[in-house]
Structures are given as C-alpha cells and as structure tokens.
Amino acid sequence: MAGKTQRGKQATQPRKTALTHTIADFEPAFWPDEQPVDNAVVMTMGALHEGHAALIRAARKEVGADGRVAVTVFVNPLQFAAGEDLDRYPRTLAADVRLAEEAGADVVFAPLPEEVYPNGEPQVRITAGPMGERFEGASRPGHFDGVLTVVAKLLHITDPDFAFFGEKDAQQLAIVQRMVADLDFDVEVIGVPTVRESDGLALSSRNRFLSEDERARALTLSAALFAGRDVAAQGPKAVRAAAAAVLDAAEGITLDYLALIDPDEFVEAPDDFQGEAVLAVAATVGSTRLIDNVRIIVR
Q: What is the DSSP string of 278-298?
C-alpha cells in the first residue's frame, strides 16, 4: 500500500470515477502515481442521496482539486442483528457511482463481503465499550462493534488523511472519533451537518421504504427536535418536555427513545447541564426505523 507521502496526484480536469471491487484494484486506482497529496474517504452503505453527496463535496473541498476522494459502498453484515433489514437494505450501485462522480469522487470501492472478510466473520473485533451500549446500542446490541470493526478495516485499506461522516448518525460519529483517538489512528474524522428535505425530514436511505402517509408521520421526529431546539435557552427540562409533547401527540409512530445527550461521553445530560448537546430521537414508522438529531446550545 502506498504511504501517506506517496499518493496519486489528480490533474485539475473533469473526473471519471473509477469503480473497484477488490483491494488489489482499489490501490492503483486511488494512488495512480507517487505525488504527495491529501486524500479523504467517505464510508457508506450505498443507496446514496444528497446527504452523501454533501459528504463527498466536503471531502473534495478539504483535499482540494488535486487531492483524492474515495467513497466506499459496503452493506456491512456485522452491524445488522437477526431480524434487521440486511437483505432489505437498498442496493443501487450504478446510481451510487453516478452520484459519487457528480459530487467529486475519484474512486468508488464496492467490495463483496468475502473481500472485506476473506476468512468469514472475524473472530477478533473492535468493541465500542460503554459508549456503544447506550441509545442506539441499547436498541441494537452489538451494532457499534460491527460498525467499528468495518470502519477500522476500511481505514486500513484506504489509508486516508481525512474521513467524513454525517452528523445524522451522531452516536456513530462520536464512537468513531473516540476509536480514532483511543487507538491512535492517523486520520482526522470530520462530521458534516445533516441534510434535510425542505419540510425538515432528515435524508436517509431508509426513507424510500416509507409510504406517503408514513412519510407524513415521520415528520413528527424532526418537528419534535425543532420544538426542543426552540426552547434550548430554558434548560434541559424544557427541551425534553417540548420535544416529548410533540411525540406524545403524534399517531402512527412507535418511539424507541428521546434523549438529550452530552456529546463528550454520549450520556444523558443532567438537568443542570449547560453547553452543546445532542437532542436525539429514534422511532419506527410503519416497518421502518428512523433516527434523527439536532445539535443545540443549552443554557
């Protein structure tokens, strides 16, 4: 693998995004010559949308016209528990490559599971620890262990200077940042703000599973978050109460959790908390589980 001072230089001309499926093909596509340039990776499970495009554009801006941007497309089986939607998860690779190219990616790496896990499911995995047992981790035991294991592998394969993740998956972002800090990965992890539809619905690959009626009901999640954000100056109790009132009045959603979170350790913020916090919600609409959050300043 090329070192961080020996990476391909991309001329400032229209890009043609390469599609690769193996590590052997990815390396020469991502590092075609020996010029030292910055590079970045955007990790996805595919079914790309404008939220992913925002990540790719942010990566391109960070590394510049001559840098390199890779997008990984891999539906990671380790982060799906029994009964979750692994087989149902949308796979739209041709459209993904087009979106990645339009947003400024140089390479799309879309491996099969046997390429990422050549010996089957790995016996040794990275554990998310206590941060991975709360909120999403409580609802999906082992999920973040699967996330960190594949993120670590993809960081080794792509060897980037920068890795971009969406703030919509706030707990995932926090846990990846903690892994990178605790285990001395030589990469800077950068969060990118959530992209929303004009009516407030957070973009998600799972939104395509919603019927028209379910989509309308799903707007309750962002409405609750915005209601809490609007009273942030009144303190944590007011934030929780305002968001809960919107959810309590809603029909057709099954609430998993609503939490005001201290982002440093990703724990529930106490009632006297002040500063930046994450107001997060998870709920099921129809058969589709959705998550959303907003970052607020609590006074």
A: EEEEEEEETTEEEEEEEEEEE
DSSP 8-state class, residue 118: B
pLDDT in tens, 27-69: 999 988 777 899 999 999 999 999 999 999 999 999 999 999 9
Which residues, at least 6 apart from 164, have a Cβ–Cβ distance to it below 8 Å?
40, 41, 42, 55, 56, 58, 59, 62, 189, 190, 191, 192
Work out the percent of the chain whose per-residue pLDDT is above 70.
Answer: 95
Cα-to-chain-centroid distance, residue 207: 15
125 with 149: CB under 8 angstroms?
yes
| The token pair that represents 257 in the structure block | 């959790």
pTM listed for this prediction: 0.93
Q: Examine the pLDDT at 122 and tell me if it is beyond 60.
A: yes
Active-site amino acid positions: 52
Which runs of E-coded beta strand occur in the chain? 18-20, 39-44, 68-73, 107-109, 162-166, 188-192, 253-262, 267-268, 275-285, 288-298
* Phi and psi at residue 136, to the nearest 5°: -60, -40
Question: H-type helices in 15-117, by residue range?
Answer: 23-30, 50-63, 93-103, 113-116
Instruction: Sort 113 into a burial class: Cβ within 10 Å, 0-12 / 13-18 / 19+.
Output: middle
